[in-house]
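hey so i finally got around to running the thing on that chain from the lab meeting. sorry it took forever, my laptop kept dying and i had to restart like 3 times. anyway pasting the input first so we r on the same page abt which one it is
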Amino acid sequence: MKELHDLLDALPYWLLFVLPVFIALSPYNPVCDASELNFPIHRLAQFEISGNRYGSKTAALSIEARTASTAPSNLLRKIVIVKIHEVSVAKVSEILNAGAGGILFVLPNEVTEETKDRAQFVEEYLLSTEHEVPIYFTQETEDINKLLDDLEGLSTEKTVSAAQAMFAGISSNGYQMSTSSNSVPQPMKDISQTSIEAVLRGQNDGDKTVVVVAHYDAIAAAPGLSFGADSNGSGVTVLLELVRIFSKIYSNPKTRPPTNLVFLLSAAGKWNFYGTKRWLEEQGSNSELLADVSFVACLDSLGGGRNNHSQLYLHVSKPHKDDTPAGKFFNNLRTIASEGHPEGVKLIHKKINLADDNLPWEHERFSIRRIPAFTLSMMSKPQALDRSSAFDTVVNEEIIAKTTKNVAEALLCSLYDHKDCQAKAFADSLSPDVHLIKKWTEYLAKTPRHASLLTSGPQMKKFSNEPSIIDVLGNTLQGYKAEVKFFKSKLEKQDPEFTFYDMSVGLTMSAHRVKPAVFDLILTCFIGAYLGILYLIIVKFDAIAKALYLGFPRFLICWPDPLTQNHYTNGHHKVK
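ok and heres what got predicted. didnt touch it at all, straight out
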């Protein structure tokens, strides 16, 4: 008995209390991997237009993760991680209605037509209304796939007993997802959009004018994913090639046509063609360039689309007569494009609906002012999902080069008023440069061009050291010896046509491996029981020792009889 008391004297009792408490309160879980996964994310666009709000209202989150296979009843205040092409619009709506605290969509690296269709329907749904919870997008990686595999083990529904469910809850690992910023998104104020005008002057003052327009912005579910390779990177590429080709013709007084040629790279085209509207307003009714406009050609989505087709559509609000400049251009283009393509150019007539808040095509901005205009596109309908998708990243450079050549031939015939137009004028240095076209398409396909990222204002942040696309386009046009002007259009403070919110790019999300809440509950119960038993053993040590002595056979117990020995209290002093 004396040896036992000596051992207890040497033991620091406070460790028996403090050590388990420290283990319970420690932020590190000894049974979990201490590593942390960080990856870039893109927040669902948040904006207001025509008084209506769209997109994700919030940005910050720090909650546990689940997958779409989790029962809806278990999604409350959880972030659901799911591959965007593996869910339907109905499933996304079910997740949001179940009270999920957020959604992280994983974008696939390999895209088929089927996966693109499903993903684009989800994108369209997300942009069609306002959502209370944070919604993010990230690109598929090996780490993300491993994260999803781990979560599937937690989310897969199986019929198990209560004991099995409890054991699974203790032994399994979860993930706590948190964003890099806890700020609340704020509206961007005092911002402006910049359109770029380039003019090639005709032979004399007062010459007629032909205008070629292409908006350079793009749109997708997330601003950082708005690449718009086809819509409208292809339109911008065709316009830049036309400027390069015709600048050589206009630079020689002997070949300069008796017509002004105006090129406009308009801003915020995806936002009801705001840049074109403001450019027309700033030109005014006394504008020299717009005093006598033969026609306006708007270029939109000319990269072949998803099926690499080269069918051209000419969209008009009012059919042009054959003897008008616009009618002659159409006939010239149809004749040239019919070579190698039996259908040539199809004319699509759709009247302007003034009751619509948003115009479907850019030429309608000019048609409203009774300026002859049309839109050239390889899209037969303005509502095509490809025009507002994160998956619009690929175009066909050969189709763009062919389209550029056809449009240039038809435009040249119109400028010189040739009656017999044939595709023979452009060759050698005047022919479209496929290599240059490829460079432009690659650059535009990797440059996010959401209008909220192209604004100028006190709240704008620069996330790259590269020159802005506005500077790149402006310098390119100036290099072609054109008269270049920048038109900055500031949104009204009181009643702006649209409002953007910040915190759309430059964010990251981290995933921490954690034990589920049931593990913390059971661990707390075990520690409480441990401390309670330990307390009873220390306080009632003599009684417990006596009970053990009396309750067990003498040959199993090596202790002396506590009734005949001197009593000890905690081994600190004797009590006689």
